[in-house]
Protein: Rab GTPase binding effector protein 1
Amino acid sequence: LQEMRITLEEQLKKEAAAKVVVEQLMFEEKNKAQRLQTELDV
Structure:
């Protein structure tokens, strides 16, 4: 049971880290899109 709990915690940590990475990528994509939009507007 202890081992299972540890694996679950590991899994949660990995998922949390992956979520952070995805959010960062989305943020960068949004910034890129905004920069492109600004360049097009000029």
Notes: The chain is about 95% helix and 0% strand. Residues 4 and 10 are 10 Å apart (CA to CA).
